Amino acid sequence: MTTVVRFAPSPTGYIHLGNARPALMNWMFALKTGGQFILRFDDTDLERSKKEYADAIEVDLAWLGIKPHRLERQSERKASHDAARDKLIEAGRLYPCYETSDELDRRRARARAMGKPPIYDRAALDLTDEDKAKLEAEGRKPHWRFKLEGKEVVFEDVVRGAQKVHTDTMSDPVLIREDGSYLYTLPSVVDDIEMGVTHIIRGEDHVTNTGAQIELFEALGAKAPTFGHHNLLTDATGEGFSKRKGSLSITNLREEGYEALAVALIAILTGTSQPVAPHASLEELAETFDVSMVSRNSARFDPAELDGFNARMVHHLSYEDVKDRLDELGLEDAEALWNAVHENLSKFDEVTVWRDLVKGDVDSVVADEDRAFIDASREMLPAEPWDENTWGEWTNQLKSETGRKGKGLFMPLRLALTGQSHGPELKTLLPLLGRKACQDRLS
């Protein structure tokens, strides 16, 4: 049997690092099992769903390395949802309710005051046809609830192991709003059935919902998929990420120059038994990663960690890995430049900073006490051609002639040649600068 997974975001905003986690977990599962990945937009909320967000989600997922096998939109599947609605009504599992939000709040408050669980009391099941007609004549429109069987639902979670949910402690979930539009649950279950979804991997905040959803699968005559619930990615304080706040949106991370693979690995590996370490590709990671590696503990992520990890990823990139990207920048001596500077980059685009330093003007820094030494170093510059041995030959001669050594020898040369107190090894940078540029900067 081919495994089929899905990621079903609502296109009501830009996805963030927390949203990327389930998307990537499902992608890992599809890669691991040779299965299919469906991108399915939960866009039944026509007022809040926007095409611009759906388009952005597709771009963000592609940037992260996710290549959906199918693209579906729930808004185009209303006929299937309506058919399921009618089937549930006929079976007596979907029933109309007329309470207002205020009335429901008061009932929950009374239940709490009496020491009872604040769940819906199913009062609407006692309404006669006359009662319903009277309420509708008053202008009330019903919302529709799914009648739970109130049982112990047992399922094997591929992340958390054996799980039990007691649906007798839950309110019958609302599936249809007063305006006739569907909430998430019914379209999701119907589409999972018709699309042959075999595994649903999502955040642990859905564990309790799973009990009701398994009952809904069964009420529609289908076997429920296998579920897996991973821990949620939070910030360093334990607070969840938010579309509304724009917390670490994938779009922003891309625009800020982070490596897609670095972002993906952070989103997948944080809060697992596998260390957050560089990998060549998601395909390579999928060979060793399994959702059972996800911890039951929280997955806290300090955004500051991304900077350090991104730098590690850049340092691991060979020239062949970035050749096309360097070609797009139109760099001269691209291979030599990359090999010289990449271990000093935090982000790929910083290579242009060093390109400008090599090829452009530099504000040389020469202290008064170093002026004579710098003049002498200019006079002792070796003849070209230069290679990586030139720096050693030059500095050995300077050491012998001036008596300087260590930091007193190397730092004045670095400041004069680059204007920086840190950076790539000068033995690799010197051939890129060339004799003429060095003479000018030592003047």
TrEMBL record:
Organism of origin: Maritalea porphyrae
Instruction: Tell me the compartments it is located in.
Output: Cytoplasm
Family that this chain belongs to? Belongs to the class-I aminoacyl-tRNA synthetase family. Glutamate--tRNA ligase type 1 subfamily.
Which catalytic reaction applies to this protein?
tRNA(Glu) + L-glutamate + ATP = L-glutamyl-tRNA(Glu) + AMP + diphosphate
Motif 'HIGH' region is found at 9-19
Q: Which Pfam families match?
A: Anticodon_2, tRNA-synt_1c
Q: Where is the Aminoacyl-tRNA synthetase class I anticodon-binding domain?
A: 367-442
Q: Which gene encodes it?
A: gltX_1
The subunit structure is: Monomer.
Q: Record-annotated residues binding ATP?
A: 243
Q: Which UniProt keywords apply?
A: Aminoacyl-tRNA synthetase, ATP-binding, Cytoplasm, Ligase, Nucleotide-binding, Protein biosynthesis
Enzyme Commission number(s) of this protein? 6.1.1.17
**Which ranges carry the Glutamyl/glutaminyl-tRNA synthetase class Ib catalytic domain?**
4-307
What is the purpose of this protein? Answer: Catalyzes the attachment of glutamate to tRNA(Glu) in a two-step reaction: glutamate is first activated by ATP to form Glu-AMP and then transferred to the acceptor end of tRNA(Glu).
Annotated NCBIfam families = gltX_bact
| Matching PROSITE patterns | AA_TRNA_LIGASE_I (PS00178)
Q: Where is this motif: 'KMSKS' region?
A: 240-244
GO MF: ligase activity
Protein name (Swiss-Prot/TrEMBL): Glutamate--tRNA ligase
Q: Which InterPro entries match?
A: aa-tRNA-synth_I_cd-bd, aa-tRNA-synth_I_codon-bd_sub2, aa-tRNA-synth_I_CS, aa_tRNA-synth_I_cd-bd_sf, Glu-tRNA-ligase_bac/mito, Glu/Gln-tRNA-synth, Glu/Gln-tRNA-synth_Ib_cat-dom, GluQ/Sye
